[in-house]
Amino acid sequence: MRGDRFCAELIWREFATQQLVLHPSLPDRARTPRFDQMRWRHDAKELAAWQRGRTGFAMVDAGMRELWRTGFMHNRVRMITASFLVKNLLHDWREGERWFWDTLVDADLASNALNWQWVAGTSPDAAPWFRIFNPESQAEKFDPAGDYRRRYVPEAATPGYIQPLVDLKATRQRALEAQESLRST
């Protein structure tokens, strides 16, 4: 990691700590109040598939399996897996936050909460809600040879290794519509 990137990560960690001090409810409540009205989906089978790396999207599955086996996950993959849970599955970001808290060796309360709110678009300084990572295009960009995916999901080399849990295009649209409905409340 270059020095400037390392410094940026340290600054983000300190910013997260400051946010937790200023907003003690950061791990539990959306910083943007309108998201308290979000109609999150609750599907135990989908949540379990995500947790176990059985979504049918190799990049998501590889990240979740790496997390379970090692207790670590690269920041880019954290964003991809988090976006998939919150935006494509439309599950409450706090479900992912709790899972990461329980499985990450380097879990930090402030960073975990702020990172989940950033991906979910629920904090004022967050990525916009419409920023929905496509796990397939992210895989092409950040794992073009497929080495990472093969390492944690060797069966992914077989076409159709598992039926995809969702249709990415349809769930992206559903997420956008869910966010849009918050504007009218």
Write the layout of secondary structure elements.
Layout: H1 3-22, H2 44-52, H3 58-70, H4 75-88, H5 93-103, H6 109-120, H7 135-142, H8 147-152, H9 168-183
Helix pairs in contact: 1-6, 3-4, 4-6, 5-6
**Cα shape:** globular
Indicate the proportion of strand residues: under 5%
Largest sheet: none
Tell me the number of strands: 0
Spans of at least 5 consecutive residues whose pLDDT stays below 50 are none
Order of helices and strands: HHHHHHHHH
Number of helices: 9
By secondary-structure content and strand pairing, the structural class works out as: mainly alpha
> Overall pLDDT, averaged?
91
Radius of gyration: 16 Å
Based on the structure, what is the oligomeric state of the protein chains?
A: single chain
Helix proportion: 55-70%
Ends: how far apart? 44 Å
Describe the structure in your own words:
The chain contains nine helices and no strands. The longest helix is centred in the first third of the chain and has 20 residues. The radius of gyration is 16 Å and the shape is globular. 59% of the residues lie in helices and 0% in strands. The mean pLDDT is 91. It has 185 residues and is mostly helical.
Could you provide a short overview of the structure?
By secondary structure, the protein is mostly helical.
Comma- or semicolon-separated keywords:
185 residues; mainly alpha; 9 helices; 59% helix; globular
